Amino acid sequence: MKKLLIILLFPIILNAQVYKAGDVLPYYYDINPDSLISYAWCHQCVITETSSINMFGVAPVDFEIVSYSINGLGGGSENITISPKHSNAFVILGRQDSVFANPWSTPYWWKTNIAKPLISSDTINKVNFIWSNSLLYLIEKDWFGGNYKNVTDFVNTNDKFIGVKYQTSIDTIFGWIRVHCPDRYRCYIKDFSASKSYVGIKELNRPEVSIYPNPVTETLFIKDPENKFQNYEIEITNHIGQTVLSLQYINSVDVSKLVQGIYIIKITSNGNQSYYSKFVKN
């Protein structure tokens, strides 16, 4: 009986869909220009900025990334956080930061939960991940009563990814949000992608532009019967957002030298109107 169970379960494990940070999933949104969330130190005042993200289309806002700074005589707080904004939105928990604090002779464990910083190609839907529906820190600097916390998990010269999901009893959607936090004072929110969406997110295959063949081996053709792209520029990026090809518009693009993978072609006018499509290079 045990052998039979192994035989039945093994194909299910093999066929499980794997979602990775940075991969262009069926629904993708490029935040252009990048959304900057930042704070500055000020004495006895409060500074806050908020960026709202709707990536699943089931509520007006799925996540908020917030910078917050407050400083006074007894202490202060400077941090950047991400918060799910409804009960079905979750973020991958990375760790809990703990400091034994003893302010004014009242000792206790000072704890905060930190989002997990993913790098490109990290798997989002690992079975052992812990998912949180509460506020998580990307960056934290807090101090009071002679006690200090300093969290810089997302501070890096390279992009980091936040793993997210939408979960109900009948559906699960996985996705990622790409951020770049060059220092503890600021984070740029660059783009996000999800395995599925109900409404509200731009699809890559917009009706205004059509490409063929897809998948492609050598030459990618762009359908433009009205010649509306003549003064536009073409940019092709790979699955981690790196530009691999940039040129003035032509309706046939040589992609033979690109390595196999998934790419985004963006056609942009001088007025910054952009059209996107996704293609696979064989």
Report on this model:
The chain is mainly beta and 282 residues long. It folds into two domains: 18-194, no CATH class; 210-281, Immunoglobulins (Immunoglobulin-like), CATH 2.60.40.10. Helices cover 5% and strands 52% of the residues. The protein contains one helix and 20 strands. The strands form four sheets. Strands 1, 5, 6, 7, 8, 11, 12 and 13 form an eight-stranded antiparallel sheet that branches. Strands 2-3-4-9-10 form a five-stranded antiparallel sheet, with no helix packed on it. A hairpin with a 6-residue loop joins strand 5 (89-101) and strand 6. The longest helix is centred in the first third of the chain and has 13 residues, at 2-14. Mean pLDDT is 82; it is low at 1-15 and 199-207.
Helix content: under 10%
Q: DSSP helix count?
A: 1
Quick one: biggest sheet? 8 strands, antiparallel
**Share in β-strands:** over 45%
Structural class: mainly beta
| Strand tally | 20
Secondary-structure element sequence? HEEEEEEEEEEEEEEEEEEEE
Total domains: 2
Give me the Rg, rounded. Answer: 22 Å
Mean of pLDDT: 82
- Outline the low-pLDDT stretches: 1-15, 199-207
Distance between the termini: 44 Å
What spatial form do the alpha-carbon principal axes imply?
elongated
